[in-house]
DNA sequence: ATAGGGTTAG
């Protein structure tokens, strides 16, 4: 094939040996080899033609090689086949996948036939969508209809995912309506994308309704709802639907397992998580990096640090999320230095940090008392990595300063923030005020925090506890009145303990468990251990302290009951257990007492105690 | 038998 033939617009031939091999490699996803082959082709003097470009462009897109892609674009122009529909679409798609949507748009605009080709719109719309250019995606969709180009299911698949942005939910719903009216909704994949859209917008019920109404459900349909539940924090619903899925004969895949594992993490249900892990191995499902990351987080939150690390070490190519999960794991266990070391390793291995990993790093610092290191890293965020700190990072800084007792600096920091402080920022200040018993500043922080999150009961409880600590009866009543006016109900402080796959529920003061006697015996042993560790045994005979410990005992007894009967159990999850405020120990879960160290967790995070002092100071 | 597509982790 000569260059002149191509230039004159003669259709390319699939059967040149180069092209056949190129197609083979691209279809087998051997993109690197495809690009090498293309280069050898050039070196050998053969000219690429309209049949060679789509495969090579696709390879550049898959490997995110915009520079090679641009070179190819030049070759396309030189070969005169830019107008060839397949080439045109491949070009647009390549630029979109590489994040260069403007270049894709230029290709589209400069070729008159693209505005007649549905595939070109489809490629560009999905490109705008994945690059979160909501406005442009919708604009192209409107243009498409204006020009009378027919909208198909693939257009919808490209467009629907963009509708999760707050202002465009109405648009997404109107699209759904259009599909129902126009009959395009028979495509199962389109419905799947609508389920996801509703779930991402938080309309869990709408998503579920759509799911229930679907006559035919595929694997992805189930996954869409299950992961939707997981993303909305409905961990129990995830497990429930997972069971239903299995009993309806649909075989879960690794995508399903990711959501199930992450829900196990939130429930602290390690047993179920491990079962899932076994299942993954047994079913021969390739454990990909997604599954591994979810496993790390599951083991981390279930207290099995060693297992989490083992999974991390086994990942052949660790993603940024893998590192983030592992760093977060050390952070929640109060092993800030180890977490920071890992962060260094990550940077050294050439991975660019993002905002999420900085949240983990900063919170690891604050949980380990590494105040100045944390502040330094916060500064480096913008300076070295060009990441604009969000409120989530600012709340970590407030936490850092606050725990260190630098309350004035904390409030100064809040005033100097470039972003609007949110509930978490003021909440962190409120928490710091609790530790350092600063009622005046607490009242300020409280006023701000309930402005942001008026329905978050936790902040009312926190403020009330501050008044309790400072013996301000009038303040306590004021908070109670507020809570009553807002219709909060005081929930009973229940605890739950996962043991051998069963979840045991306890109320405060509950003596109904069949092993109550053992539970109380266990308490005595535990408390003795605590006293030894905190070093408070003999030198602390204050009447009030002793009373408070006695009161505390009862709750501990309930909470730790299972420990006695399961010496092998490493984890106990105990929710809402009140803490003895005099000895700085014991919150909601004890896993081991080793080396004068405790690991305790509540529903959302770990508390790592060393010498009786908790790394997070987040006491009730 | 070459282009556009639904579900996943921190």
UniProtKB/TrEMBL annotation:
<feature type="repeat" description="PPR">
    <location>
        <begin position="319"/>
        <end position="353"/>
    </location>
</feature>
<feature type="repeat" description="PPR">
    <location>
        <begin position="218"/>
        <end position="252"/>
    </location>
</feature>
<feature type="domain" description="DYW">
    <location>
        <begin position="541"/>
        <end position="620"/>
    </location>
</feature>
<dbReference type="Pfam" id="PF01535">
    <property type="entry name" value="PPR"/>
</dbReference>
<dbReference type="GO" id="GO:0016554">
    <property type="term" value="P:cytidine to uridine editing"/>
</dbReference>
<dbReference type="GO" id="GO:0008270">
    <property type="term" value="F:zinc ion binding"/>
</dbReference>
<feature type="repeat" description="PPR">
    <location>
        <begin position="14"/>
        <end position="48"/>
    </location>
</feature>
<dbReference type="InterPro" id="IPR032867">
    <property type="entry name" value="DYW_dom"/>
</dbReference>
<dbReference type="Pfam" id="PF20431">
    <property type="entry name" value="E_motif"/>
</dbReference>
<dbReference type="InterPro" id="IPR011990">
    <property type="entry name" value="TPR-like_helical_dom_sf"/>
</dbReference>
<dbReference type="GO" id="GO:0005739">
    <property type="term" value="C:mitochondrion"/>
</dbReference>
<dbReference type="GO" id="GO:0003723">
    <property type="term" value="F:RNA binding"/>
</dbReference>
<dbReference type="InterPro" id="IPR046960">
    <property type="entry name" value="PPR_At4g14850-like_plant"/>
</dbReference>
<keyword id="KW-0677">Repeat</keyword>
<dbReference type="Pfam" id="PF12854">
    <property type="entry name" value="PPR_1"/>
</dbReference>
<feature type="repeat" description="PPR">
    <location>
        <begin position="117"/>
        <end position="151"/>
    </location>
</feature>
<comment type="similarity">
    <text>Belongs to the PPR family. PCMP-H subfamily.</text>
</comment>
<dbReference type="InterPro" id="IPR046848">
    <property type="entry name" value="E_motif"/>
</dbReference>
<feature type="repeat" description="PPR">
    <location>
        <begin position="84"/>
        <end position="114"/>
    </location>
</feature>
<dbReference type="InterPro" id="IPR002885">
    <property type="entry name" value="PPR_rpt"/>
</dbReference>
<protein>
    <recommendedName>
        <fullName>DYW domain-containing protein</fullName>
    </recommendedName>
</protein>
<dbReference type="Pfam" id="PF13041">
    <property type="entry name" value="PPR_2"/>
</dbReference>
<dbReference type="Pfam" id="PF14432">
    <property type="entry name" value="DYW_deaminase"/>
</dbReference>
